[in-house]
Amino acid sequence: MPQASLDELTTHVSAGSHLASFPTDTVPALAAQPAQAALIYVAKQRSLDKPLILMAATMTDLWDYVKGTETERHSWEKVANRYLPGALTLVLPASDRVPPVMNPHHLTTIGVRVPDHAIAQAILAQTGALATTSANLSGQPPLETISEIEAQFPTVLTLSPHESQRIAGQVSLTASGIPSTVIRWNGGGWEVLRQGAVRLEL
User: Fold this and answer.
1) Is 111 helix (H, G, I), strand (E, B) or coil?
2) What is the CATH number of the domain that holds 90?
3) What DSSP assignment string belongs to 90-137?
4) What pLDDT is attached to residue 147?
5) CA–CA–CA angle 25, 28, 34 (5° rounding)
6) pTM (2 decimals)?
7) Whether the Cβ atoms of residue 202 and residue 76 lie closer than 8 Å to each other
């Protein structure tokens, strides 16, 4: 697997020419520019009816990708402020800024998340919002280690161990290995689509 510095990785991903994989607070992510989301579907051998999510360093980077009334936005911000950064994905009405290639069969909604992980945050702060999913072939369990990801996706960019250590410093970065909890806004409240690492009080 090509290992890169933070600047090298974010430059290539921002240009849309490469996929990247990086750790998050749940499971490692496979990521691309939103407009290049087709690269993820090809790499994962993923059905186009399975949507991707947008991941960013802050919710500020994600609000332009969703649309709703002022009252709805207030409800969304209340949950986001309480649980994000964290292992929670919010499925919200999509704005026209979301490239159709991200979710070909789910054009009206988009899942958004802010991970609570220093390395993911460092990458996303430079690239802006990225189309993401778990790093694994479709239908298989999420991969958890760099060596596993390297074997399955030999052309995907990752941070070099030295660069990861530089970003993380002395902080112990642990991932739960449990996918995020997914909730969907249904127009008047929240519906839990997948119970994951976060248990909500809504």
Assistant:
1) strand
2) 3.90.870.10
3) EEEEB-TTS-GGGSTT-TTEEEEE----HHHHHHHHHH-SEEEEESS-
4) 86
5) 100
6) 0.94
7) no
